[in-house]
C-alpha cells in the first residue's frame, strides 16, 4: 500500500511574474515561482497536511533542478518527477492585467516534458492504491501522455462510492493546447466514464459536455456516472452536485491581486475535504475559501493557504443556497 494520500499527474513549470505593472514589453524584472496545475494542487494539499506527489517530467536544466527542490521544500514527494533529456523545463510568463484573469504566455514548444509521459514512467502500484488520483484535461491533449493517462485511469478503474478512493478529473481546458473544442470533448468523454469527481468552470464544462449552464452541465456529468460534480461559477459561487441533490456555495469576496492558482488552490482544498470524509457542501466551502485566499495573493504554489486560514475564512462567512 502506498503511503501517499494524493498523486497528481501533469503540468509543471516555472512561473515568471512581472515585478512591474504594464505589458510584458515594458517589464524589466520578474520573480520566479513554482507553477503548473497538477503541481499546484499537490502543493495545496500538502500545505493542508496531506502526503502528496506529482507524476511529471522536466528538462535536464537548472529550472528542472529548481522544480524538484521547490517541490521538496513544499513537502511534496518529487520521486516521480522524471527527465526528458532533449526538452527544456517549461516557463510561463504572465501579465497582471487584468488581475482576475491575467494573460499567460506559455513556453512549451515543441512539446512540454510533462506531455511525454509514457507507461514506463508510471508507478503502477501507486496508481492502483493511492486514495486520490488527480488528472487533467491537458494531460490527454497530445501523445504519448494521452495514452498514458488513459491507461492509468483504465488500470485503476472508476472507484465505487464509499470506497475511500477518488479519481478526480480537473477539466483544465486550455484552448492553446488543442486543435479544437470538439477534439477535446472526445478525449474528455473517455475520462468522464472513469472519474468519480469532476471539477471545472463554465467554459470547461461546456467543452466537456456541451453546455455552460451549470445545473444542466452537472446533470450531464452525473448521467455519466460521476459521483461529485463541482461547477465553478466565479462571483456566483460553486454549484455542488451529487446523485442525491445539489447546492450552491457562495463565494468569498476578496480584493483580487492575481487570479492565477485560485483554481488549483480549490483543488487542494477539494482533495483535503475528500480525504477528511466531509460532506460535499463542506468540501466546497473550504475549497472555495482556498481559491479566494490565493486570489488575494501573488503567486500560486507559494500562496497556498493553511487549514487554519481556511477555517477562519469559512467561519467568517457561511451559508448555502439550494
Give the CATH class: Alpha Beta
Mean pLDDT value: 91
Named CATH architecture: 3-Layer(aba) Sandwich
Q: Number of helical segments?
A: 10
Shape: globular
- Please tell me the total number of domains: 1
Question: Radius of gyration over alpha carbons?
Answer: 18 Å
Termini separation (Å)?
A: 40 Å
Bin the helical content. 25-40%
Main structural class: alpha/beta
What does this protein look like?
The chain is α/β, with parallel strands linked by helices. It has one domain: Ribokinase (UDP-N-acetylmuramoyl-L-alanine:D-glutamate ligase, 3-Layer(aba) Sandwich), CATH 3.40.1190. 35% of the residues lie in helices and 20% in strands. It has ten helices and 14 strands. Strands 1, 4, 5, 6, 9, 10, 11, 12, 13 and 14 form a ten-stranded mixed beta sheet that branches. Helix 1 crosses helix 8, helix 6 packs across helix 7 and helix 8 packs antiparallel against helix 9. The mean pLDDT is 91.
Amino acid at each position: 500500500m502506498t503511503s501517499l494520500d494524493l498523486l497528481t499527474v501533469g503540468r509543471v513549470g516555472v512561473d515568471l511574474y512581472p515585478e512591474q505593472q504594464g505589458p510584458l514589453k515594458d517589464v524589466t524584472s520578474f520573480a520566479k515561482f513554482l507553477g503548473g496545475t497538477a503541481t499546484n494542487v499537490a502543493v495545496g494539499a500538502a500545505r493542508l497536511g496531506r502526503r502528496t506527489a506529482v507524476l511529471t517530467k522536466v528538462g535536464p536544466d537548472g529550472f528542472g533542478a529548481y522544480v524538484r527542490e521547490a517541490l521538496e521544500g513544499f513537502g511534496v514527494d518529487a520521486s516521480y518527477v522524471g527527465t526528458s533529456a532533449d526538452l527544456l523545463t517549461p516557463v510561463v510568463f504572465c501579465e497582471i492585467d487584468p488581475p482576475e484573469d491575467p494573460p499567460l504566455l506559455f513556453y512549451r514548444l515543441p512539446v512540454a516534458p510533462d506531455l511525454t509521459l509514457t507507461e514506463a514512467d508510471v508507478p503502477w502500484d501507486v496508481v492502483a492504491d493511492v486514495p486520490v488520483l488527480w488528472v487533467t484535461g491537458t494531460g490527454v491533449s497530445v501523445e504519448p501522455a494521452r495514452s498514458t493517462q488513459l491507461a492509468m485511469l483504465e488500470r485503476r478503474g472508476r472507484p465505487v462510492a464509499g470506497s475511500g478512493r477518488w479519481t478526480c478529473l480537473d477539466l483544465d481546458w486550455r484552448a492553446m493546447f488543442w486543435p479544437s473544442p470538439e477534439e477535446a470533448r472526445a478525449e474528455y468523454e473517455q475520462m468522464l466514464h472513469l472519474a468519480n469527481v469532476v471539477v471545472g468552470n463554465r467554459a470547461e464544462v461546456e467543452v466537456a459536455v456541451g453546455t455552460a449552464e451549470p445545473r444542466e452541465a452537472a446533470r450531464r456529468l452525473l448521467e455519466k456516472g460521476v459521483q461529485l460534480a463541482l461547477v465553478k461559477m466565479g462571483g456566483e459561487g460553486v454549484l455542488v452536485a451529487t446523485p442525491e441533490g445539489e447546492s450552491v456555495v457562495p463565494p468569498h469576496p476578496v480584493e483580487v491581486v492575481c487570479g492565477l492558482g485560485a483554481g488549483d488552490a480549490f483543488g487542494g482544498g477539494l482533495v483535503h475535504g475528500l480525504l477528511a470524509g466531509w460532506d460535499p457542501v463542506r468540501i466546497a466551502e473550504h475549497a472555495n475559501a482556498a481559491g479566494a485566499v490565493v486570489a488575494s495573493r501573488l503567486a500560486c504554489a507559494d500562496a497556498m493557504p493553511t487549514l487554519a486560514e481556511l477555517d477562519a475564512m469559512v467561519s467568517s462567512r457561511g451559508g448555502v443556497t439550494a
